[in-house]
Amino acid sequence: xxxxxxxxxxxxxxxxxxxQAAQRGLNVVLHEMRPEVETFAHKTGKLGEMVCSNSFRSDxxxxxxxxxxHWEMRAAGxxxxxxxxxxxxxAGGALAVDREAFADAITAKLTALDTVRVSHEEVTxxxxxxxxxxxxxxxxxxxxGQAIQAETGADALAFFDAIAPIVYAESIDMEKAWLQSRxxxxxxxxxxxxxxxxxxxxxQYEAFIDALLAADKTEFHEGETAGYFDGCLPIEVxxxxxxxxxxxxxxxxxxxxxxxxxxxxxxxxxQLRRDNALxxxxxxxxxxxxxxxxxxxxxxxxxxxxAEARFARLGGIHRNTFLNSPTLLDxxxxxxxxxxxxxxxxxxxxxGYVESSAMGLLAGRMxxxxxxxxxxxxxxxxxxxGALIHHITGGAEAKTFQPMNVNFxxxxxxxxxxxGRRGRKDRYxxxxxxxxxxxSAWLDAQRTA
Length: 449
Prior knowledge:
Layout: E1 4-8, H1 12-23, E2 27-31, E3 55-58, H2 65-75, H3 79-86, E4 88-89, E5 94-97, H4 99-111, E6 116-119, E7 131-134, H5 142-152, E8 157-163, E9 166-168, E10 178-179, H6 189-192, E11 195-200, H7 202-214, H8 235-240, E12 268-274, E13 281-284, H9 293-300, E14 311-313, E15 316-322, H10 325-328, E16 334-335, E17 338-343, H11 353-372, H12 384-395, H13 424-448
Parallel strand pairs: 1-2, 1-7, 2-6, 7-17
Antiparallel strand pairs: 3-5, 4-5, 8-15, 9-13, 9-14, 10-11, 11-12, 12-13, 16-17
Helix pairs in contact: 1-11, 2-11, 2-13
């Protein structure tokens, strides 16, 4: 069919790419293998299913690169970020959502479009004909992975991604835990009390670390290596790096006061974040793990307030595949050896729901521009989208390429501003002001073309 685009993968990137392409008049076939072919982490066949955290992270568009990416996607009519806003949950300064309602809405919005057809089957080859976007994410099927390997002539890089457990709220002992966002962030009381906090004294923390280190862990299959992405390390791997690592990471006690013992400073604090609109489920923040299920329950129940915890989902671990994009993709996210094929999302080497959605947004617009014969202006490097795509398509060092979250370290310096911590606030505001202007101009150029 004329002006038809095929997209493989119905996660964040694929759903966003389909939406962007359809809004520009393309006919889209969205190929999603679930539920016909299942993955370790997914539970449904819905589009936009969240499999790890339910958070899109910071929504601060002036001092945070992730929040800036939110702003840019909203300005571009992004499906993922606008739907997240509709189903947001209290989470301090973060954008967290009710994951089930969110996936239901993404599925409904895409299937309601006459120009989008969802086809549930596994795609196992790289097609020679037609325009395609592969947004198969970190859990690309084995057969498709083999086809990609055969085409690129290089081994796909891989690391292991770990999933945090989810606890039933009613099983948390609130006589030991309390509700508070770090530094009381948020405009409303709900936002300021978005997290459950479980305090530990020094002895409890030391015993917890001992248990983590001694717990039974998931074994890797022969030939697999544990090259973790640093932004999603299992807690036991962090503990192995030093006994104080967790206390300065997900268990840091700063910005929190225990109302049960206001004069006692906790040595460490475990935080749980609401996972659904009803407030019946909470996920343990930063507690990705590769411990075996029995060990998880024993170790996590050592946390004050979770002695009687019941788990809606225990943590897990899965293989996460991504391309060496700096060597394989051009500036339009096309596979150099097969320019009819684009890649988008986590398989390109970005990390996180937000970054994946952003790359889907760009891929969808780029494919539409190519099929419709309407040249797309170059994505401005000073925008958050531009900083990311520049990094994965050439800015990164190919030999050491690893998945990357958006961060201000990817942005070109602003002349005349101080470096270091003292100048950080002014520097970040300058980055975001410059990015918004560049992104707005890029969008305006497309409207007038």
